[in-house]
Amino acid sequence: MASDVMMPRLSDSMEEGTVLKWLVEVGGEVKRGEPLVEIETDKANMTYEADTDGVLIEVLADEGQTLPIGEVIARIGAPGEEAGGGRSEEKEPASEEPEPEPEAETEAGEEEPEEEPEPEREREPAPAASSDGGGGNGRVKASPVARRMAREMGLELSGISGTGPGGRIVKADIEAAAKGGGTAVEEREAPAREEQPERAPAPQPSADGAKGEVRTQELTRLQRTVSRRMAESKATAPEFHLNMEIDMSGCVELRERLKEVAEPAPSFNDMVVKACASALREFPRVNGAYRDGQWELYSRVNVGVAVAAQDTLIVPTIFDADQKSLGMIARDARALIGKVREGNITPPELSGGTFTVSNLGMYGIESFSAVINPPQAAILAVGALKKKPVVDESGRIVARDMMAVTLVCDHRILYGADGAEFLARVRELLEQPLSLAL
Fold first, then answer.
1. Are 71 and 6 in contact, with CB atoms under 8 Å apart?
2. Cα dihedral angle (70, 76, 81, 85), rounded to 10 degrees?
3. How many C-beta atoms lie closer than 10 Å to residue 172's C-beta?
4. Residue 131 pLDDT level (bands cut at 50, 70, 90)
5. Cα 208–211–215 angle (5° rounding)?
6. Is there a catalytic annotation at residue 411?
7. Contact 75, 5 (CB under 8 A)
8. pLDDT at residue 87 tops 80
9. Which of 133, 223, 241, 353 gives 162 a disulfide partner, CB atoms 3.0 to 4.6 angstroms apart?
């Protein structure tokens, strides 16, 4: 008997995946533990291995198709076994089984032909409803993510057209509807009208083109994923910012001493990660997430470090950072950053983050705001470390090594006082850094 291959969960935050490439053709032999399909997750692209032996008898998800976790994407059976399970969406008509009942009535009631037209009227609205993104019997087909986003944005699913399998409304449809302030149907119709006038002047780069010749560039799948997640964050998370300057003079002295005993010495960003990890243990809501009307509080403190690489942004994770020494964090961070830049980072190393640190200080940026990495509660944006005049306790003006930080918080789980207390604790740890070295 054939077994279903479901869209797997390949990261803790993954809710849907895109089939990139089938590595076995239909009819080909499949062996347990061997590569079967490449799938794009919200973190990275990875190869999914078959969990059973047999023959790939049916592929239900085409390359490029995005499906939620748990949807059937293929079937593996015995040699010679025929496909015939059909796509997973065919299961939904099971809930519409009441429709066949009228047919039974027509067979039994041959003397009452007037009742026969009624089933026909019931069937006619069905395809109309699916074309609008709805399912039969008035229920709108939508993925759990799409339902949650629509609820949070105040959008009516009945007014949005789905582009998923069987007209299912997916996350991209909600984002399209939110950007247009209307329904996805309007979004889709608009380009058809606009493309013609925009493409017409393209071959005439001389007169009317105020911006000159236009060259379009397709995004990579990872870039599209980053774009989608950042848009989701800005559209759903009511954020607020807390700014603070931290006197890093103690960290500068500590690093000079560490250079004598460690090579390479931990960076200032490693110290920030260590300070955040220690503070996160004391403030569990900052180490949590808001999801579907509930707070999720995590037992592990896993700090993500934003790394720019290959024209995109990747956030590898330092797991259990609160339990690691400063030296261990420094070694882990260097290893992960190296993998990112070499393109060898794996999805498990990009998943599980509970908080993120983003540092642009090396580019001379004094302060900036960052976008929360959903569904995390907060992200810390770190600016450049610079010598600045500061008034000390005796009233003298002295030169100190100052660093500006901005904590961006999701107001659905953190309030102003929560974020302020957490940030004050991070500053305390960095201004008295000996505890970081223990």
1. yes
2. 10
3. 18
4. very low
5. 110
6. yes
7. yes
8. no
9. 133
Least confident among 170-179, 292-301, 319-328, 353-362 = 170-179
Q: Does the reported pTM lie above 0.70? A: no
For residue 307, report the phi and psi dihedrals to the nearest 5 degrees.
-130, 130
- Token reading at 371: 């976008």
Token pair, residue 76, equals 């593996």
How far apart CA 318 and CA 327 sit, in angstroms, is: 13
The two three-digit tokens of residue 105, written as one number: 């009535």
Single out the residue of 310, 398, 306, 404 nearest to residue 364, CA to CA.
404
**pLDDT(97) > 70:** no
Catalytic annotation, pick one of 188, 262, 411, 420: 411
Do 274 and 436 meet the contact criterion of CB atoms below 8 Å apart? yes
Q: Two tokens at 290?
A: 């808001």
Q: Which DSSP helix (H) or strand (E) runs through 252?
A: helix 249-258
pLDDT grade for 120, boundaries at 50, 70 and 90? very low
Nearest to 408 by CA among 266, 306, 267: 306
Distance CA 128, CA 29 (A): 41
Distance CA 11, CA 37 (A): 16
- How many Cβ atoms sit within 10 Å of the Cβ of residue 319? 17
Residue 117 scores a pLDDT above 60: no
Say how far apart CA 383 and CA 113 lie, in whole Å: 79
Six-digit token pair at 338? Answer: 């190296």
Orientation angle between helical segments 416-431 and 249-258, nearest 10 degrees: 50
Cα distances from 371 to residues 24, 221, 222, 239, 407, in angstroms, run 39, 20, 17, 9, 10
pLDDT at 68: 86
Maximum C-alpha span of the chain: 105
Q: 123 near 145, Cβ under 8 Å?
A: no
Give strand ranges (E) for 269-396: 288-291, 294-297, 303-305, 307-309, 312-314, 317-318, 355-359, 378-391
- Euclidean distance between CA atoms 393 and 222, whole angstroms: 50
Reported confidence tier of residue 368, pLDDT bands at 50, 70, 90? very high
SS3 246: strand
Over residues 386-398, the pLDDT tens digits come to: 999 999 889 999 9
The alpha carbon of residue 71 and the mean position of all alpha carbons in its chain are separated, in whole angstroms, by: 19
